[in-house]
């Protein structure tokens, strides 16, 4: 629930045809996973889909993952060292997350600008890369735009801010009502540690705090909604830097099918009447 994974019935198009989804259920909550691994798996899936004469669609996700897949020279820094990572985490615990974030801003202002001060895990990783390589983390995240491995058509879906935030609030309420808390409780009961990166993600960490008695259910939901709104705002800011994206105001369309038709028509794939879509 917390990752908004589609149910099987949501993968069925309006005409009854099954729409396959890739890279779902590929790792356990305690299995290490990184954008570098995703890059490899996603490119393999794209190649396989293209060989079968189908059109691959990258949907959702973050700007980092999109760039990692679509830019051929997108490189990744070397793995970290446990000793250094633990020392940085202790520094954050002793002096506060803001102190560590300010430290990053001195050596890598570009990365610090895109990371929230409380995102200790990523701030630690960025500092770790700097201390190990002598180069800022942002220097590793470069590609050559002129090299294009794919013929891309990028579309962004947006809503007026009040409508977007209202939808985020309703979505969080629905996810909790459907059993999100019980999902996290089950993961903890199966032995997964609260400190795992998978349980530190948006929403999961708030529910863990609630289950540990650090806040009540109402406060848990309020924090999930607030932090999701903040995340959406940061993501929009990041994606708007990409001039290749064609933005569509979803509020101007009567239904999801109309948006799907518009996208495929603009991409030159079909006319607006010949579209399959899922219930997602």
Summarize the structure.
The protein is built from 12 helices and 2 strands; from the N terminus they run H-H-H-H-H-H-H-E-H-H-H-H-E-H. The chain is mainly α and 280 residues long. The longest helix has 23 residues, at 217-239.
Summarize the topology.
Blueprint lengths: L34 H17 L11 H8 L11 H14 L1 H11 L1 H6 L5 H14 L3 H4 L14 E4 L2 H17 L2 H10 L14 H8 L5 H23 L6 E4 L6 H11 L14
Parallel strand pairs: 1-2
Helix pairs in contact: 1-2, 3-4, 3-6, 4-6, 8-11, 9-10, 10-11
Rounded mean pLDDT is 87
Q: Helical proportion? A: 40-55%
SS class? mainly alpha
List low-confidence stretches.
none
Specify the number of helices. 12
What is the string of SSEs from the N terminus onward? HHHHHHHEHHHHEH
Anisotropy-based shape: globular
What is the subunit organization of this protein?
single chain
Strand content: under 5%
Radius of gyration: 20 Å
Number of strands: 2
Major sheet attributes: 2 strands, parallel
Termini Cα gap = 13 Å
Give the strand order, joined by hyphens, for the main sheet: 1-2
List keywords for this structure.
mainly alpha; 51% helix; single chain; two-stranded parallel ribbon
Describe the structure.
The protein has 280 residues and is mostly helical. The chain is built from twelve helices and two strands. It has a two-stranded parallel ribbon. The longest helix has 23 residues, at 217-239.
